Amino acid sequence: MQLTVVKTFISRFLILILSFGLVIFSTNMWGSEGKGTISIVIANAAIVSFFSSIFAGSSTSYFASKFKTEQILVYSYIWSVCMGILIPVIFSFADIQAKYLMYLIGISVFSALLSVNVNLFIGKQNIRLFNVYTILQQLVHILFIVFFIYILEQKDVSVYFGAQICCLALLFLTSFFQVIRECKISDLSLSKQVFKSMFEYGWKTQLSAFIQFLNYRLSFYFLEHFEGIGSVGIFSIGITFSEAIWTITRSIAVILYSDVVNSKSSEESILKTKSSLKLSFILMLIFLLGIIIIPGSVYEMIFGRAFRGTKEIMLLLSPGILAIAISDMIGYYFSGIKELRILNVKSIVGLVITLVFSFLLIPKYGIFGACIVTTLSYSVSALLLFLKFYRSTEFRIQDYLITKEDIRLVKEKLIKK
Questions:
Q1: Which is nearest to 27 in space by CA: 246, 302, 243, 247?
Q2: Predicted confidence (pLDDT) per residue in 281-336, tens digit
Q3: CA of 148: how far to CAs of 24, 37, 45, 344, in Å?
Q4: Residues 181-193: pLDDT tens digits?
Q5: Considering the chain, what is the average pLDDT of its residues?
Q6: Distances, alpha carbon 23 to alpha carbons 32, 97, 160, 226, 275, in Å
Q7: Structure confidence by residue, pLDDT tens digits, 237-293
């Protein structure tokens, strides 16, 4: 597992760099309003993905070792296309960036189809291909943006979405040929048991994930309503930084999930979860301290004068970022053992906090109010998850204390080739 963690960590670190590069470029290219538009459309695409992922998400990973790949693909692909078209059309009636409807459909369909293949790699413990495609999603997207802007000389913000569609379509086709060459046409079939099992597991996991996503993104819509699209662009920088940092710890979480799903020993799964918790905590502290000590003037120089409040945004968000990074490990553990109720409970509690305090704080304090609401929601939902894990496992205080041995192991993981 150790070498796998190292390779995945390296891949996620590359994604972190590429994500920051894309954020810096997009803010300088299209300004706060353009970044706000990108954030809202991508948030809409993420909402669509939760419906698509009932079959295309973790259910594909979970059942990859339990059902035939051919049976899984039939339902996952059909569902991905249907949801990728239907949900954006429904969205268009709400008139939330409706002029980008066709881009939203393209992103939603190809993102879901690619997700099927990537999650299949996770379920079969092919972490190498999972790492490759997660890196390529950032890298190829950037290459297409460069091509459209500097070769085709297109400057509109829609370039961002067109490039993303091309990227996702290309990667889906590539991964499709890798998946399908190991399949037998004769095994393609419709199975009531496969459909029922995938749907039941999928909607339960996605319900929690969707509610949690609303905790992550609902502030965007409140800000757009009360403060305008430009404020969304400024606030989204902090959220983008958060999610870029989470790619590091979620690389460990994905490996943990794959191990738990395929494990026959609950004791071994618990030990790996506790180890992952401590490793994630150490890594989060390192990255958060690095971001926090950067002077505010550096953020302004990189992103422009409109983003001069980025340092304060990061300071307010940092406790919540740390809380979610740690709770992700426990969430993947509970998902892996099919104990999904607690995931829904913690997400609903977080959503209630987001809704109530958004109405109270965002109209009064604007972007900083959104930061406070976000951190409060993250922290409370993470605490609920940790308490559940603590009560359901044998607790020893040393399991959660960082020792010299843990620090030594972290160093080994980071330098081992």
A1: 302
A2: 877 888 788 877 888 788 777 777 767 777 888 888 888 888 888 887 888 788 77
A3: 18, 19, 21, 42
A4: 877 776 666 778 8
A5: 80
A6: 11, 20, 11, 24, 32
A7: 777 777 777 777 776 776 676 677 676 677 777 777 777 777 778 778 887 888 778
- Residue written as tokens 């071994």? 268
Q: Give 277-303 as a DSSP string.
A: HHHHHHHHHHHHHHHHTS-HHHHHHHH
Distance of CA 212 to the CA centre of its chain: 11
SS (H, E, C) 129-144: HHHHHHHHHHHHHHHH
Among candidates 46, 137, 129, 143, which has minimal Cα distance to 87? 46
160: helix, strand or coil: helix
- What pTM was estimated for this model as a whole? 0.68
- Contact, 32 vs 230, CB < 8 A? yes
| Count of Cβ atoms closer than 10 Å to residue 289 Cβ | 10
12 by Cβ neighbours in 10 Å (0-12 / 13-18 / 19+) ranks as buried
What single-letter amino acid sits at 128?
R
